[in-house]
Amino acid sequence: MSIKSKSIESKSDFNQDERLKKVSNLKILLNRPELGALGGAILVFLFFGIVAGDTGMFSAYGILNFLDVSANLGIIAIAAAMLMIGGEFDLSIGSMIGFAGICIAIPAIYWGWPLWMSIIFAFSMAVLVGYFNGILVVRTGLPSFIVTLAMLFILRGATLALTRLITGRTQVPGLRVLIENDPIAWIFATDSFKWVFTWLGSMNLIALRTDGTPLATGIPPSVIWFIALAILTTWILMKTRYGNWIFASGGDKNGANNVGVPVGRVKISLFIGTAVAATIFATIQVLDAGSADTMRGTLKELEAIAAAVVGGCLLTGGYGSAIGAAFGAIIFGTVSMGIFYTDVDTDWFKVFLGAMMLIAVIFNNYIRRKVTESK
Amino acid sequence: MSDYLVQFNNISKFFGKVIALKDVTMKLRKGEIMCLLGDNGAGKSTLIKTLAGVHKPDEGEIIFEGEKIIFDSPKDALDIGIATVYQDLALVPLMSVTRNFFMGREPLKGPPFLKTFDIEKANKIAAERMGQIGIDVRDPSQAVGTMSGGERQCLAISRAIYFGAKVLVLDEPTSALGVHQASVVLKYIVKAASQGLAVILITHNVHHAYPVGNSFTVLNRGKSLGTYEKKDISREKLLSMMAGGEELDKLEVELKEMNRVSS
pLDDT digits over A339-349, tens only? Predict the structure, then answer.
């Protein structure tokens, strides 16, 4: 008894119950929602390591390439996961990406606004759209699936119609020249840790261009945003009162309300979160491409939800993790890029995506039963 | 005299033309368990919601610690210490014991604007509180979904007490439970009362109510059939009152008649 209780006390001070079976760290890990996605990501890396290990996929340039794709998806997948944990869906993420893109491009190119003002304008519009989505869902009690499906069409349609009305076309190019010397744009457009790559290049550790500069120039801004958001949201979920409210709102709306959780406010803030994440995605893309396209982000909402589900979020809410969604995005990003390095036809990517999601849903369902079953 | 902790005097509630409650009077002292008995449709739910501040009574008054009070919202009732534990318990099965215990009222730590949920402290309190009831929470971070129905009920009650309940209103706490589980919950209710809480136990199960109650109020079709001290009424009398005793008597006579005819 003395030995046993000692080992428990050293682990945590609150439980002196000698009946407590010492739970192995493995078991704790098994109960975490992101386990499936973590395992999946490791499997994917192993697979491509074996199949495409010598093709350049895992060169600095190749790694940054698939990380960039993963990170872009991850930014919206994390926000979608937070909203799903809060018990709602947002199908308008993809349309919001297109809308945010032209909110930056049109004022900057056609109205002569400075770029930073256009970016702030786009984010303000995102807050409005998110708030509108949220207040509609909370006030009407309608399923968010329907409300945001309507918003999917409205936003995409408005993006197309307004862009054609103002510019006479569906693309707005010419942004690249505006990025330099802009006080805000660099946050979304600058590669980081360039010195590391320059140094690696000078040591001949990574591939170089013919002019001697490294092929991979730095960590793309999407990756930095992705990592920062993953850390921030995980901290919110695990360590803050607001995080507890998100789980409670998604787990049992009425129960949460009865004990004083402001469920409506929590949900509205999460809808604003997905719209803002879509705008971060859009800003990075628009500045990277130098142009906005009205069709940007089409179907991205479904990929984001798929990544969140693979990351362990339940469709019914109240359970899931942000870091899981991040792993889900890494799986999809890595496969979508990695498939180019194999002999497999890229047409098969969508098949993989769907199959992954099915497996994840079945697995999640099993986990949920396990978590809630009476002893 | 007002040695009563809380008094509900002549409470009436109308919904349009429907008289949901008429002149219901209940008085409770500290440490007392009053059982509110009634069949389905007797007005129990309306009465609970009136006690909890969801409905405002159309007539009558609520006197708490000698002062007349009016509830504008459930929060008002909660603030003065009337806590209601509904049948759904307001627990989220997928969340941990601790996260449920402190749902909506999380303890915080840290500097202003960067306050975080003090999970260590919360775990400690939750484990302590559940331990006091004799419930073996093996691990406060385990999901509530893994607990039995009785344990969940005790968790919800224990939460209400921790957050300062003086009057505990319990809506059918034993209805979904087996015999053993129900007795665990009832034992806990008695223990809570012995620590000075006033408990209103709403149930349609006389066998659960009679052993623990100090007094009994029977509701029938929105009206109180009176409040009785335990010494003044037997279990059988109570049962026949709440189930509409005459109806059962009539049924018995009819059955006898049928048997006689068929034999």
Answer: 888 888 888 88
Closest residue to B94, CB basis, from A23, A261, A371: A371
Distance from CA of A238 to the nearest CA of B (A): 8
Torsion over CA of A117, A121, A123 and A124, rounded to 10 degrees? 130
Here the CATH number for the domain that contains residue A129 is 1.10.3470
A265 in contact with chain B, both atoms CB, cutoff 8 A:
no
Cβ neighbours around A45 below 10 Å, total = 15
Chain A: closest CA distance from residue B124 (Å): 5
Cβ–Cβ gap B139/A244 under 8 Å: no
- DSSP code at position A184: T
Question: Could you tell me if residue A26 is inside a domain?
Answer: no
Q: Where are the domains of chain B?
A: 6-92+164-240
Question: Are A19 and B138 in contact (CB < 8 Å)?
Answer: yes
CA angle at B225 for the pair B220 and B230, rounded to the nearest 5°: 120
Nearest chain B residue to A266 by CA distance is B104
Residue B140 to chain A, least CA–CA distance (Å)? 9
Nearest CA in chain B to A250: B92
Residue B225 Cα distances to B50, B53, B232, B234, B261, angstroms:
19, 23, 14, 15, 37
Spell B221-241 as b/e; 16+ CB within 10 A means b. Answer: ebbbbebbebeebeeeebbbb
Indicate whether B50 pLDDT > 80.
yes
C-beta of residue A92 within 8 angstroms of C-beta of residue A152: yes
- Distance, in Å, from the CA atom of A370 to the CA atom of B14, rounded to the nearest integer, reads 46
Dihedral sign of CA atoms A229, A278, A62, A359 in order: positive
In a domain, A228, yes or no: yes
Q: Does the ipTM surpass 0.90?
A: no
Helix ranges, chain A (H): 2-11, 25-30, 35-52, 60-85, 93-110, 115-140, 144-167, 176-179, 186-189, 194-202, 221-239, 241-251, 253-258, 263-289, 300-310, 322-338, 349-372
User: Which of A239, A254, A261 lies closest to B103 in CB terms?
Assistant: A261
Taking one residue from A and the other from B, the number of pairs with CB-CB distance under 8 angstroms is: 107
DSSP-derived 3-state class of residue A363: helix
Q: pTM to 2 decimals?
A: 0.86
Structure confidence by residue, pLDDT tens digits, A131-169: 999 999 999 999 999 999 999 999 999 999 999 999 999
Chain A residues with CB-CB distance to B75 below 8 A: 260
Domain range B6-92+164-240, CATH class:
alpha beta
